[in-house]
Design a protein that fits this description.
heterodimer; A: mainly alpha; MetI-like fold; B: alpha+beta; Rossmann fold; OB fold (Dihydrolipoamide Acetyltransferase, E2P); 2 domains; 6-stranded mixed β-sheet; 5-stranded antiparallel β-sheet; about 25% helix; about 35% strand; elongated; transport (chain B); ABC_transporter-like_CS (chain B); ATP-binding (chain B); ABC transporter ATP-binding protein (chain B); ATP binding (chain B)
């Protein structure tokens, strides 16, 4: 009886810990007051509407979307061949390649951001936009390689030999036989990469310049100047966006199999 | 079946990196023959098959097919079919599209593709399964699809890797008959790999027994079953009592022993199946260690001065109890004469 009670208490605490911030943000977003506060003062949708009127939010949202979509695509273009080579051939430096590819997960984002700023943006005079694109691609690459590797490992390699014996070239076999069978893995990698890129803070922090900011960075800047609930409203909107993407992915792809 | 060589492997050496799997192998196969490559795992039979398909490049040697040197022709241009042990069907394609895959690559007219796929599926009795995905088929059905997929390409040689090993006993018999029928109807030259002597004996026109990357014996099923040439082949096809020849008799644990007649000249060993051992009378005596009822017969394990002896008697004959002593004989006229020990 006591252990049962204890487990309910633990469960409740965990749920509060996980969902609490989310509840507070949503409540603050629906506040009728003028400052970010909890409990909210009154109830209104005005801050949610305001989000769409802030010019810098629109620009940074566009940039974040661009980075999330094209950064992930670039990571997949690089990552799928890496995953394929790692799973099908015994490479001489296979383990080293794996480690290098997953380095961006292990190395703290702050360091990656600082390094890119110091050795890419400053000496080479690379524009901040390009640096952001490179950084996001590199950060998503490990996820792309991992998720695609998982689905390649589940695909028997003898079907490729079967296709070759039936007259298909190696390259054609990759497109006709391998790709169609790992497409849900690739889609899962895309979603994971998209969400990772969209929520990225530490690296983007170093690589933001005048007028070039990703959405999360822009939200921090906005809060330093204006302390109104529109940031909470935006955060709530983003949370709903992420949740719906992951929910749909789980529903149609069985997303959790890959992550 | 013509007498001319159709597929010829000459001095073929195959290696994975520095590990030599098959060394200087020579084998000639006639058109329309059904050949079994028989041997335990690791004997090089699958490696040999992969070399014929072109999936493995030979380290040295030559492969000729239908008069053309194909040693270095890539696998996708060889006109050789392969039915994988795991079937290797394309999971994202329907049965129809699996069978049509190779034909579509050939850019044949749609009408012809449809006809050939239909004919192929009819041949293996799967006409009604067109639009199923491989995952919705049983193991036996998947194998038929794999067979049809290879056959519609009209390969010059069809290779099958352990075609019956993944099927249950009843299906195995059915598929065996099916393979023979398909081979008769299509006339295709078939080479199949197996570790199961019964499969090889029942299916093949000729059996190639392999051991450690080399051919031990090539012969008809009767030859291999009744007249094994080496100790390895004898052991593999069920001769469980094998003794080297010494002087005018055999060498046993108790030293040289005379038999009722001299072994043939040039013999280096003699081998008896359990049912060739005479029980109840004879020049030797042993103790029954174990007895097992096997339906039509009883199997005995004897401890004797010669070494352990395995014997088999008709179940109708009186049984010997474990622990009792029994006379036995190894009749030389029934033994298989081995050239190599």
């Amino acid at each position: 009886m006591t252990s049962r009670l204890l487990s309910y208490v633990t469960l409740t605490l965990v749920l509060i810990f996980l969902l609490g911030p989310f509840v507070i943000i949503v409540a603050a977003a629906l506040s009728g007051g003028e400052t970010l506060a909890f409990p909210p003062q009154g109830l209104s949708l005005k801050w949610v509407m305001k989000v769409f009127e802030v010019e810098s939010f629109r620009a940074s949202f566009a940039l974040s979307m661009f980075l999330a979509i094209f950064g992930t695509l670039a990571a997949l273009v690089l990552g799928v061949p890496v995953a394929y080579a790692a799973s099908r051939y015994r490479l001489p430096f296979g383990e080293t390649i794996r480690t290098i590819v997953s380095a961006p997960i292990i190395v703290p984002g702050i360091i990656v951001g600082l390094a890119l700023l110091r050795y890419l943006v400053i000496p080479l005079d690379v524009s901040v936009g390009v640096a952001l694109f490179i950084a996001h691609t590199a950060l998503i690459l490990p996820y792309a390689v991992r998720v695609v590797s998982a689905s390649l490992d589940n695909l028997r390699s003898d079907i490729e030999e079967a296709a070759v014996i039936l007259g298909s070239s190696r390259v054609a076999t990759f497109f006709r036989i391998v790709l169609p069978n790992i497409q849900s893995g690739i889609l899962a990698a895309f979603i994971l990469g998209f969400v990772t890129s969209f929520n990225q803070v530490p690296v983007s922090l170093f690589l933001s310049g005048p007028g070039v900011r990703t959405l999360p960075i822009d939200m921090i800047w906005y809060m330093e100047i204006t302390y109104d609930p529109s940031v909470a409203a935006l955060a709530a909107l983003l949370a709903f966006l992420s949740i719906s993407i992951v929910f749909l992915a789980e529903r149609f792809l069985g997303f959790s199999r890959y992550v | 079946m013509s007498d001319e060589t159709y597929l010829d492997l000459s001095n073929l050496t195959l290696a994975y990196g520095k590990t030599v799997a098959v060394e200087s192998l020579n084998l000639s196969i006639r058109k329309g023959e059904l050949i079994a490559l028989l041997g335990p795992s690791g004997c090089g039979k699958t490696t040999t098959m992969r070399a014929i398909t072109g999936l493995l490049r030979p380290a040295s040697g030559k492969i000729t097919l239908d008069g053309a040197d194909i040693t270095y022709v890539p696998a996708n241009k060889r006109h050789v079919g392969l039915v994988f042990q795991s079937y290797a069907l394309f999971p994202h394609l329907t049965v129809f599209e699996n069978v049509a895959f190779g034909l579509r690559l050939k850019k044949l007219p749609t009408v012809e593709i449809n006809q050939r796929v239909e004919a192929g599926l009819a041949m293996v009795g799967l006409s009604k399964f067109h639009s199923r995905k491989p995952a919705e088929l049983s193991g036996g059905q998947q194998q038929r699809v794999a067979l049809a997929r290879s056959l519609v390409m009209e390969p010059k040689v069809l290779l099958l890797d352990e075609p019956l090993s993944n099927l249950d006993a009843r299906l195995r018999l059915e598929m065996r008959t099916e393979l023979q029928r398909v081979q008769r109807e299509s006339g295709v030259t078939m080479v199949f790999v197996t570790h199961d002597q019964n499969e090889a004996l029942a299916l093949a026109d000729r059996i190639v027994v392999m051991k450690e990357g080399a051919i031990e014996q090539v012969g008809s099923p009767e030859d291999v079953y009744n007249r094994p040439q080496s100790r390895f082949v004898a052991d593999f096809v069920g001769f469980e009592n094998i003794f080297p020849v010494e002087g005018d008799g055999i060498r046993t644990e108790a030293g040289a022993m005379q038999l009722s007649a001299k072994p043939a000249a040039g013999a280096s060993g003699l081998a008896w199946r359990p049912n060739m051992v005479t029980l109840g009378e004879g020049r030797f005596e042993g103790e029954v260690l174990g007895a097992a009822f096997a339906g039509g017969s009883r199997e005995y394990l004897l401890k004797s001065p010669l070494g352990p002896i395995k014997a088999e008697m008709d179940a109708a004959a009186p049984a010997f109890e474990p622990g009792s002593r029994v006379a036995f004989d190894l009749p030389p006229e029934r033994a298989a004469v081995l050239e190599r020990m």
